[in-house]
Amino acid sequence: MAALVATPVAQYTTTASWIAAPAIGKGDLAWLEVARSDGSTRTVAAFRGDRLVLRAAGATRTIVHEDCDPGDCDIVRAPVAGADGAFAYSVAFPGTAGYVASVSRAGASNVVAEDVTDPELIREPHLLATTAAAVVWVEDGSIRIAPAVGGTAAILVAAEATGGEVTAISAGPAGIAWSVRRPDGGSAIVVRAITGEVAVRAEEPAGGAQLAQPALMDDGTVVAVSRRVVRGRYAVELVAIGVDGTRRAIAASTPFRRGGPLEAMRPSVTGTRVAARLREGRGGSRDAIWVFDLASGAKQRVTAVARSRGRLSDPSFGGRRLVWAKTELRGSRLVRARVLSAAVRR
User: Fold this and answer.
1) Number of other residues whose CB lies within 10 A of the CB of residue 173
2) Interatomic CA distance for residues 164 and 182, integer angstroms
3) Radius of gyration of the chain (CA)
4) Which candidate, 201, 168, 199, places its Cα nearest to that of 314?
5) What is the distance between the alpha carbons of residues 22 and 7, in angstroms, rounded to a whole number?
6) How far apart are CA 211 and CA 180, in angstroms?
7) DSSP summary character for residue 78
8) Rounded CA separation 177/171 (Å)
9) pTM of this prediction?
């Protein structure tokens, strides 16, 4: 069976910083970094950092760089590829200010919207996503939207209509999807269709599986992560949820002990394809990146690494490529971090 993506190539290498959350669009790259002394193995699978780096037209630029408290480093959130090679991102300076912004290929940042929250209440950057021409983010419990070039922001979904505390958000031609943690401890995936209708796509009661990290496909299908505890181990499953609510499993991680880190494991989609990082091997001892084609049923294991020797970030599609970060370790210490990408085959 033909490969779904080509052989990976290294795009950037450093021995001075941990790398997290790379994104790609039209050949340009953006990612987060945390200084070697401030990060840890958990940094690789997170979506936060103290430095946002852009690589475009052969030049590498630091867009945001603010010193952080070691072990926290939640100044800037993961970049999301937008239109025309731009990347959206969000920044928070706790107790001072916060904003949602977009950076162009030339490295010029444009503030899309400033945080209207009381500065003393600002703790972390906003969750955000992008559409073809706009940035969508979560603020004060509501979902808001504004043109990527800046302008008047509008409340797309009021706080009371989101269904709970928003934990992740995704956007695409079919609309917007988000996951929520309900006040009773349950979880749900909610979708606002392009027509404006808001509906719960899937839900789990308190004590059941936790639904999280939705990715909205062009046909309205939502790919999400379902997590539950079975006999003291985490069972993590990648699921596809159809427009009619029908749920089917795509793949699952090897169950791993509850005492270990529960990482977000955020999927990415393009066309009919899904990319995700899964745990493999005995006790989930390896990180692996897989690509699945939901239309043909084809699948490909793109890369894998023993967690005793390295870590992989979650993969991200963009510009007909797949991108991720690989960190090499000696014990728990950083040896080298790289951004890799692979062309998506037709």
Assistant:
1) 12
2) 5
3) 19
4) 168
5) 18
6) 8
7) P
8) 6
9) 0.95
